[in-house]
Amino acid sequence: MSLPLHVVTTEAxxxxxxxxxxxxxxxxxxxxxxxxxxxxPVWAAELDRRVAEAExxxxxxxxxxxxxxxxxxxxxxx
Length: 78
Prior knowledge:
Layout: H1 5-13, H2 17-31, H3 39-57, H4 64-76
């Protein structure tokens, strides 16, 4: 039985930034199709950089509801 998306999202947002980035990478890996072979190493390096930065600064990022509201507002203006 799968969990509702909002439950999974809430649980994922409670993770520390480094674990959220690792989860994002695993989710992307699970749905990616073969593509530009140069893309994967660049994306992996960027994720590694962000994980290291989050672990170093302890930055928890912005709250999801704030980011979501901003994105929805931007989309509504298009």
